[in-house]
Write a structure and sequence with these properties.
With 289 residues, this protein is an alpha+beta fold. It has six helices and ten strands. The structure holds a DNA duplex (16 and 16 nucleotides).
Length: 289
Amino acid sequence: MPELPEVETLRRGLMPWIEGQKIVGVQLNRPDLREPLPARMAARLTGARLLALRRRAKYLLADLSSGEVMLLHLGMSGRVLLSGQALSAAPLANYYHEHPAAQKHDHVVMDFENGVRLTFNDPRRFGLIDLFSAGAEVGHPRLAHLGPEPLAPEFDGPALAARLKGKKGPVKPVLMDAGVLAGVGNIYASEALFRAGIHPERAAGGLSARECQRLAGAIRDVLEAALEAGGSSLRDFQQADGALGLFQHRFQVYDQEGAACQKPRCKGQIAKIVQSGRASYFCPKCQVA
DNA sequence: CTTGGGTCCTGTGCGC
DNA sequence: TGCGCACAGGACCCAA
């Protein structure tokens, strides 16, 4: 499910309930996700206090009082569920107040001292959990080679141009390369190119400074719009299953093949192509090759 | 070095 | 209604 806005929405949703809380119990229902779970994971987590919850790209990073950092990635199908009596007073509707019965693919369950329970569910198991000492974060193989954060204040047209320089491949898959730019996935790559009016098959390194300026702005705008939708869904949208971190968002091109282009006065029809094995959506009329 | 393709895994939705 | 297949929001690994 998750791209950067979903992960950030999840981080913001979890933070008030687990930050500063001590982990009092950890239940592991299988030894691995995509990779084996960290050695002695339950013992290493139990008794530690979760000091802060950060995000880098699509990774959540939890700083623990034990001096270790827990890294969590949701993969394609990962979800996090919060439950517990402590949430009864919450102004938020989309939490369980009682612990629900265990579901299929509930792989990791963590209980905090305030009674809040965090459940990680991931059918496809492309998710990842790692645990390492804080000093090992810089240089962690999953984090060391990530590109810049698109929501960081210093990310702008020239910064994007520098990342795309010399890249001969089509811009859409290049945008999805986490080493080029962190956190932009298949949905928002298409959405951003549409907003910027740039064809997904354009050579990444061939974009003009002006186009890079437009594209950088479009990436930031679409991510922020999704974040805003996530934030409001968190407050207002009650999900049937209580799952946190997902929200309905109206995409302008993603999964909209055949729909009318939403740009004013454009009579185009959204098209779908496959690039590097992933679906890309665009308007052939206003995104010129 | 880049780039494209295969791979991990389960669930869902579509066409027949 | 059942069955088989294509495809799904990520990201690594490897061959060319």
